């Protein structure tokens, strides 16, 4: 059993002002795996005051000082990577190979990227008669979700630190362990007092207090659309900057010249990674109408090949994070059945042989883009296949969504694929795979307004000053 009942404020581990605790549930077993403290507004005030006090000195620190700290954190992160991966598995159910691999690895990647960007970043630029000076925005409230917990924390904490900002992190209540270990890492690496602070607790209390706080200059939020909207409203009275990284319903377009079976298998397998709890997942698979049957058969085979079970074993998919997420996903599967979508594989209930834990059957439907299951973010292992008539139709379907986070194109003709990518109204498009820690990540439309990752992620935390003359 884990017990994380203290917060990290002003380089000290401190008890909450008012004692209150909550259990953390292991989604694979439904048993309590540990306890955290729930903070209050008074804890937020303490953490923000510490961050404000530290900002004066940290904002004036040199690039060399900040690089030295980031490299120290990197050494300590490497020492504890396995431990963090295990924490991710326990808190949100990712298979252990994913938790200790890509989940923890993303954090290491963002740290290395922050170092690379900081080594070369132009904080000052002379342009004609004016000097552009990029200065840290101030005290940042960082609010993160549970699905890729280390990814979302590290993609905020390190750019904030690297640009000279100070921060107060509020990790997700459902998945608090990995962030707690990260705070221990920050401490061990010698992060100065107040530069990084962390409080656990409820979003409606801690997150809301950070959003409203007069002494917080910016809130960076990753999570659901409704909460993003609420945060924007809460932040409005204090005119703070709000960076939003919200949900998605991304289209994966397979072109007629592509290897259909191979790409459908990749898209189906990709959808089931992390039990479908990925904001940029390609949850709508668009295939040429003439090849729909072929695609459906390939998706069925791929889906049936996805192993589900104990995340400590060698499975492709663990449970979803919580009972409430399980219920929401079941509701969408029922909705798909009710609205007449064709069930290709999976369906309601737990996979055979699993009687405990929030396990969902990997599920594929074939439907049209007006189905609710094609329009709303399910945030579970549910893929929909949609037929298109020609490339214009494919683009029309892809863009017919309130979201605009990601997109995917698979096809042999690179020019056609890139031309299609240009027409997609999304913050990123992956053409025939690929991955780059330096590529900006964020959404159009209701998927948000921020850009994280790489150099773009630094600009989120910087003000621009012109010195003219
Ligand atoms: P959520 O919005 O419920 O919670 C996210 C965080 O906000 C949590 O820490 C929560 O405690 C906090 N919160 C809740 N209410 C709050 C309030 N009133 N004020 C301030 N903070 C509050 O989201 P979730 O269920 O944790 O995560 C899933 C969602 O996150 C999905 O919609 C997913 O698409 C999205 N997401 C987006 C990205 C991206 O980069 N665009 C990445 C991952 C997840």
Question: In brief, what are we looking at here?
Answer:
This protein is an alpha/beta fold and 469 residues long.
How is the topology of this model organized?
Elements: E1 2-4, E2 7-9, E3 12-14, E4 21-25, E5 32-37, H1 41-58, H2 63-79, H3 81-92, H4 96-120, E6 124-127, E7 130-136, E8 139-143, H5 149-162, E9 166-170, H6 177-188, E10 196-198, H7 203-212, E11 218-222, H8 225-236, E12 241-245, E13 251-254, H9 260-272, E14 284-288, H10 292-304, H11 323-338, E15 342-345, E16 363-366, H12 372-375, E17 382-388, H13 391-399, E18 403-404, E19 407-410, H14 414-423, E20 430-431, E21 444-445, H15 454-459, E22 462-468
Parallel strand pairs: 1-5, 8-9, 8-11, 9-10, 11-12, 13-14, 13-19, 14-17, 16-17, 19-20
Antiparallel strand pairs: 2-3, 4-5, 6-7, 7-22, 15-16, 18-21
Helix pairs in contact: 1-7, 2-4, 3-4, 3-6, 4-5, 7-8, 9-10
Bound molecules: nicotinamide-adenine-dinucleotide (NAD).
Nicotinamide-adenine-dinucleotide binds next to helix 7 and helix 8.
CATH homology superfamily of the largest domain: Aldehyde Dehydrogenase, Chain A, domain 1
Helix content: 40-55%
Taken from the alpha-carbon principal axes, the silhouette is globular
Quickly give the structural class: alpha/beta
Output the CATH topology of the largest domain. Aldehyde Dehydrogenase, Chain A, domain 1
Low-confidence stretches: none
In percent terms, what proportion of residues is strand?
Answer: 15-25%
